[in-house]
Amino acid sequence: MCIILQLGIFVVLAKEPTSASQPLGGSASIIYTLVVNNEDAAKHTAHVRLVVNEPTGSSLTITFDRQGALLGGPYPISIKDLRASNEKGDKLWTSQYSDQGWPSWTVSTQNARTVTVEYDVVLDYYWKAIDAYLGYLGPSFMMSIGLWTFLVPSGFSKRPVIANFSLPTGWDAYAPWDRQNGTWHAPSVEYFVTSTFALGTFRVITRHIADTDVSIVVYDKWAASMQEEIADASFRIFEYYATMVFTKPPIGKYMAIYAPGTDDGKDIGQCEWSQSQGISVVQQFVTGHMENYAHRVFHIWNNFPPTGMQAGTTEGDWSWWATEGIAIYYNNRALVDLGYLKGNEPLRDDVDRYLREFLGTKNDVPVTQAFKLWDISTDAYFFVTYRKGALVSLLMDALTRKVTNENKTLDDLMRTLYERHGGMKGVYTNKDMIRLLNSITGFDFTPFFNKYVYGKDRLPLKLVPGDLAVDWPELLRALKLSRFPIMTLTLSDSFPKVGQTVRMTAQLVTIYSKPIVNQTITFYLNSTLIGSTTTDQSGLATLTFKVEVNRGTYQVVANYAGSPLFSGTKESAALTVLPMEVTVTATAGPTSTTQVVTETGVLPVQMTWLQVYWPYLVLALVVAAIAIVLLARKFTALK
Length: 639
Ligand SMILES: [Zn+2]
Prior knowledge:
- There is one protein chain.
- The protein is α+β, with helices and mostly antiparallel strands.
- It folds into 3 domains: 8-298, Immunoglobulin-like (Sandwich); 312-478, Neutral Protease, domain 2 (Orthogonal Bundle), CATH 1.10.390.10; 486-611, Sandwich (Immunoglobulin-like).
- It is built from 13 helices and 36 strands.
- An 8-stranded mixed sheet has the order 5-4-8-2-1-14-17-16. The chain has a 4-stranded antiparallel sheet with strand order 6-7-3-13, with no helix packed on it.
- Helix 5 packs across helix 7 (378-403) and helix 6 (345-358) packs across helix 7.
- The longest helix has 30 residues, at 609-638.
- It is globular and about 100 Å long.
- The model is unreliable at 1-25 and 587-608 (pLDDT under 50).
- Bound molecules: zinc ion.
């Protein structure tokens, strides 16, 4: 899965290198023409012509747009045969130089009214670090972000763009720009070059979601069922962010292009910005693609210009972990909430790795200091920023829900943060997050940040089969949140048969393990009230329940409404009711909630015919065997 390589303090959105000496010209459009033919496409080569009307000054700088720094640039993308001419076709003097690794050209304009620059771009740069190409052109298609294909004239980033494509027969162009009579229009150079576009044969499926026209572009040669599966998942994920997490998308148009893999079976990476993204589907469309897509959609609000908000990338207050960590957390949570992931397996793997490889090692640094790992291990840098950052975000979400009795979530933080910092308004700091969380929840998040954001205390998370879980006793104790009781729920039998009885025991204790006595616990089976009882001297409330319901899996919920001293809480456990005649040997004994819940994922809840009837089958086989032996004896005797 490809994620943008923001190197935090190492890259900053640079100003246009020569903008000071080169004031904006008029409003005449910058005109691009991209020419692709079959023969050159096989060699990954496209021809680009760039026309700058009304250039100002005596020279023009042609270079890669510096917005590419946000995607980890500069990259060694091959530009060949760059040459320039004036409106009369006279050749203009050019000279190439490198500006901090960015290949750049000075064109001596000599009072030209129009400067035409032509060059070939070879889109075959494979970047090993992310195992992907940065833009790709092959015999059957092209996909790239404009940044790697279209050089820009410095100082003209606000000028409108007109683009034309000359393509092989049957190919078309797909981009988040406006098309009028075969010509494309983009509002500005900066918008144009940060757009992902594709060339070839694709199918466009568009849906209007919360004021945004979302276009999903899928490769035309894929099966229609796969195209629709991709579009459906993409629309649902966009809607999740646009209507549930945030209020309204800050863009009128969004495009996601799903292209095939490259000719050697690789991905095409670094195609992402606020208006569009490109994803490679090498074989099957899987949840990994959805995570990647969801991650980038989240960045419309939390990262990409001009709509996003910016995190701090200075050493003193490095909040960049929240750009990537929260994005990773959400791109998992969205898939769980939408039913594409059953448990939170990807983050579970991160907890596992955190515990095994990071905790207590020199790479175990606070998320606000992940940038210090860059020179030691880029892998460790990415793990702490993205993955540990996601685990911290999960804890932040869980704690927000807990202390507000599920009335607020991390979404409230994101919305409020976006109201203040969306559209590149300033930079949000770690302290901004603390302040907003405090005002949203009425609780002080400073201790949480001191331990798990600025500090490197062991994250209170635990592994459960197929998922991860917050270790509430540990977290509440660590933060001394004594108002919040800890409840456990155990069932005497998680797999009872119809007619049997099950003892349901809830225990209510303080974070210091002291029983909370004489409190009412109410039990529900799904949403049906089945009884209530009060806690004894040990904090135990037990309800005996006769199973008189149909077979199936139910949710047992123990609810504590709270008291003047303690907040309310609830716990749940799965109860699988089996038909009367079934025998199950693997009955779960008294276990905590989480264990019961996860064991249902391991044990066969749906019994197969063979599992249910095997005793009868064995009996039938034994009878048959005896009959055969008897018959055989008779037969021998007859002989
Ligand atoms: Zn990202």
